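dumping this here before i forget
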Amino acid sequence: MNESNFIPLNFKAYIGGYGGPSYSVEMINPALIRYSSFKESIIPDKEIEFEVTPESWKTLRTSLEKAMVFNWKDEYVDTGVLDGTGWSFVVKYPDLQKEVNGSNAYPKKEEFDSFLKAISVLVRNNIFE
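structure:
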């Protein structure tokens, strides 16, 4: 695989609960991402920018593939729960892309847990859950 295929053209991940903590990670450019955590408002209580190496992007893509993220449905929704956890993920590579979101529903537990861990590793083990 071409090395440039490991670096996304677009990347954004979010997870959060109603009235509870929320987390977001967004690619600013191929070498920089922003991690934000929110306690109870739309204003982040913590915001950090990290440099990202090509090796970190390669680790992420490998982890996403192992978690089967590119095979997930586009949406996971539990209509029986009104307040709870919402999440979204967008990644676009030169050769592959995925946009998925959920509300109180998820892919297989082991796949979703692996996905959360991959994002956490990307942001140097800051919380993303």
